[in-house]
Amino acid sequence: MGNSKSGAVSKEILEDLKLSTKFSETEIVHWYENFKKQCPSGRITKEEFQNIYSKFFPESDANTYAQHVFRSFDTNDDGTLDFKEYIIALHMTSTGKTTRKLEWAFSLFDVDKNGYITKSEVKEICASIFKLIPKDEVDDLPEDENTPEKRAEKLWKTFNKGDNDRIAEGEFVHGLLNNEEALSLIQYEPMK
Ligand SMILES: [Ca+2]
Ligand SMILES: [Ca+2]
Hints:
Elements: H1 11-20, H2 25-38, E1 43-45, H3 46-56, H4 63-73, E2 80-82, H5 83-95, H6 98-109, E3 116-118, H7 119-130, H8 135-138, H9 148-157, E4 166-168, H10 169-176, H11 180-185
Antiparallel strand pairs: 1-2, 3-4
The protein binds calcium ion (CA) (2 copies).
One calcium ion is lined by residues 74, 76, 78, 80-82, 85.
């Protein structure tokens, strides 16, 4: 894929994105224009990404979570998000089907990208999600979900695994699909 510096989205990327998402050419071109406006270099750094995230969570600490999300979006591991990574991320997290979202969630939890989730990875991500919850909302959480450790424990239990076992992608998606209670543990939506 060429390193085109021109203003328009390259034909290769356009074709690729039309195939891998359900977005139309018009939508992709429109987003590309916005992306270029907000990000003239054509790449979002981890710091920029964290700044964007922290604006959505003014009352809590979104830094760790944002780092994990960034890692899951940066599929080619080069430390920046390009337009294609950005659009695919947008597709998976906002307009995708639940299965798609869960596949993305899997990559979020698979911290070392080895294709499996361990209990320590579940703990790590649960801790970063927990930091998104403002203090006053933590008080209202159910007793068995009001610390990062308890949430990790509860989530891990839904997979019926031993402490040293690991979870493959299919098991992860299957275990969470239509499981509202477990799903609520892997996300936090600000109330306002
Ligand atoms: Ca990248
Ligand atoms: Ca892993």
